[in-house]
Design goal:
Growth Hormone, Chain: A, 18 helices, two-stranded antiparallel sheet, about 400 residues, globular
Length: about 400
């Protein structure tokens, strides 16, 4: 294997920086969000605020993904998305600070979600377009995004001391502008297949649903949606559980899950070279079953162990899924495939997870006291059902005719 050239190394550094800086504001706002809204007397809105991202995922990722594949450079789209996301996040923070009505706060959160939700799939498609061997190169690069997420959490907890303050959100809005400036250092990647006359189905990105005709693609996509239902409980309710146990610096504690994410991403290429894809997928879901079982034990040590296992549970399924799509789907569908994954994860799966999780949390809470073992055992059972579904439904290349 030849050593990478100076230009290749510079490109890798740029892509790593892009991932790092894109994930940092996501962690700064997404992780403490539940406690911030609670501190401003809007704790009852938390499930609905998280659900705004899910509703947005039904609209914007496929639409933007179709633009990136068929009309405009994904780099140009990322530039505009990050600029508008910064403004929308500032307005959302302002709606809380200025005491606007619940309806107005949710409207601001929904507007912010519409422009922020496609950012990740567009960023991923940009990175994939610059790689020669996704299986080997993507994991270490994606680890920089996890490092950025962790850095955002640490800044919120240790520097800004803003685990229940809007300061983190305002800072995140500023960081989105940093991401926007980075797009001027990226090559202006052309769309995969320029279409001058597009049907409404193509404009809306609905042609991506054609990917579901392939059995294994369909199982991978559906499992991603189903898996996101119990996974949606992790950030909103782990932070509340830690708060109930009297912990401080909650955002930093939750970032323990990202330490194992980085480890797994660095080792992922070696794992994929030696282990059948089905077992990599399945091990991620199975580890989530174990992790939620630890949470159900209800004590701080077990809750922290469960949090650390998040990196295995997330990476072994979802990062492997992104690599799967890059390797097994035509490159001209790259942005739409990643967007469809975003729709099913952030849209369908998270919508059910956030709203259903909110209902389940309310059911497990009486007189302000939450029965945390009952809550987490419910999430454990749901994850186990997803694990069984994937084990029975996915065939893999070894069984294809």
């Amino acid at each position: 294997m030849t050593a990478p050239t100076t230009d290749a190394k510079a490109s890798r550094r740029m892509l790593a920086t892009l991932f790092f800086c894109t994930a940092m504001p996501m962690g700064m706002w997404g992780v403490p969000l539940a406690n911030v809204f609670t501190a401003y007397g809007r704790g009852h809105l938390v499930p609905y605020v998280f659900a705004t991202t899910s509703l947005a995922a039904f609209i914007s990722p496929l639409f933007v993904g179709a633009l990136a594949d068929q009309k405009h450079s994904p780099v140009l789209l990322l530039r505009w998305l990050t600029a508008v996301t910064s403004l929308a996040l500032l307005i959302t923070c302002g709606s809380l600070a200025w005491g606007w009505s619940d309806a107005a706060v949710l409207a601001c959160a929904q507007a912010q979600a519409l422009v922020a939700t496609p950012v990740w799939s567009v960023t991923s498609s940009i990175v994939f377009s610059q790689l020669q061997d996704a299986k080997l190169q993507f994991g270490p690069l994606r680890a920089w995004a996890t490092a950025g997420w962790m850095a955002g959490c640490w800044i919120v907890s240790f520097v800004l001391k803003a685990d229940a303050s809007l300061v983190g959100g305002v800072t995140a809005a500023g960081l989105w502008l940093v991401v926007m400036t980075l797009t001027w250092r990226l090559p202006m990647i052309p769309p995969g297949e320029v279409l001058q006359h597009r049907t409404w189905r193509q404009i809306l990105g609905l042609d991506a649903l054609e990917l579901l005709k392939h059995r294994d693609h369909r199982v991978v996509f559906i499992t991603a949606a189903l898996y996101c239902v119990p996974l949606a409980a992790f950030y909103p309710y782990t932070s509340r559980h830690l708060h109930d146990l009297g912990l401080q610096k909650i955002s930093a504690l939750i970032s323990l899950g990202q330490t194992t994410e980085i480890l797994v991403m660095v080792l992922l290429a070696g794992v994929l070279a030696r282990v059948r894809l089905k077992w990599v997928f399945l091990s991620g879901i199975a580890i989530c079953v174990v992790r939620y079982s630890f949470n159900a034990l209800g004590t701080l040590p077990w809750l922290l162990v469960g949090t650390v296992l998040h990196g295995f549970a997330y990476t072994l399924y979802f990062i492997t899924t992104q690599i799967y799509l890059e390797e097994r789907i035509d490159p001209k569908w790259r942005s739409r495939a990643q967007a469809l994954l975003s729709l099913l994860m952030s849209g369908l799966g998270n919508l059910i997870g956030y709203l259903g999780g909110g209902w389940w949390f309310a059911t497990c809470t009486q007189n302000g006291v939450t029965d945390w073992p009952r809550f987490w055992w419910g999430e454990t059972a749901l994850t186990a059902a997803v694990c069984v579904f994937f084990a029975l439904a996915y065939r893999g290349r070894a069984h294809q005719t």
